[in-house]
Amino acid sequence: MGRCHKLTVSGQRDELKIQPIGQTRPVIISGRFPIFLKLQLSYFEHVKKKLQQQEGRKKTQELLSKAVYLLSMGGNDYMKVGNPKPGEVPLTDSEKKEYVTIVLGNITSTVKKVYAMGGRKFLFQAVGPLGCMPATRVSPGAEGCSHEVMSLAKMHNTAMSNVLRKLEKTLPGFKYSLFDYFSTLASITNYAPKYGFKEGQAACCSSGHFNGAFTCANTTAGFNLCHDPTK
Fold it and tell me: One GO molecular-function annotation for this sequence (predicted)?
């Protein structure tokens, strides 16, 4: 399969005049900072140069063309804008469409740049059921899933399929696989016992409603830890 450079959990720039988005975690608590998509791409460019120095141009191109590139993006972007704080106005349907278009445009641009550097085999992960994640349901009384962020995830996944089909037609040698993370995770969450779990709704380590407050391992804020993480 060759060497695999993994571009994952990445983010986009704020082009809708909304707060900066695309963090590696929705809330920075433990000193971690965002690694934006463009920065990750620059890392890959650096890796290619290093490979050329060590292996030569021909061998590097062979390695890059055989490698599989995993891209898992969009979740943090939609979590950021799909969960309006009290007093904030939710995105309109047209704004949601515009936002999804921007996110997919940045993903498409990145794919084309990796392709231009020699990448040919890509694995994409669809956005998961964000509206049902513990972080989305952390507010007391939030028993159901969030429609706002869930609608963004569904719009993204539908449009993503169309984008990939177009790329396959326009980029010679471009091969891809799209993993339906949305349906897979939703099934595990809703039918946990079927997959050998006792709990599928709450996070194992954190605090707040459904343990969705992102305080895991934060000794100052405090956190809960489930008795058996395997369950």
Answer: lipase activity
Most confident of 18-22, 26-30, 141-145, 165-169: 165-169
Burial 154-177 (b: 16+ CB within 10 A, else e): bbbbeebeebbeebeeebeebebe
Query: Residue 91: its pLDDT value, please?
Result: 86
Sketch the domain layout of the chain as residue ranges.
7-182, 191-231
Token pair 């037609």: residue? 169
- How does the average pLDDT of the chain come out, rounded? 81
Amino acid identity for residue 103 in this structure: V
**Over residues 36-54, mean pLDDT:** 91
Helix axes 147-170, 75-82, angle to 10 degrees: 150
Kindly state the average pLDDT of the residues 212-226.
Answer: 73
Q: Is 141 exposed, middle or buried (0-12, 13-18, 19+ CB in 10 A)?
A: exposed
Residues 148, 130: Cα–Cα separation, whole Å: 10
What confidence score (pLDDT) does residue 17 get? 47
Q: Nearest CA to 152 among 72, 75, 73?
A: 75
- Percent of the chain, pLDDT > 90? 45
pLDDT at 116: 97
Work out the burial of residue 24: count CB atoms within 10 Å of its CB; fewer than 13 is exposed, 13-18 middle, 19 or more buried.
middle
What does the alpha-carbon distance between residue 12 and residue 38 come to, in Å, rounded to a whole number?
A: 8
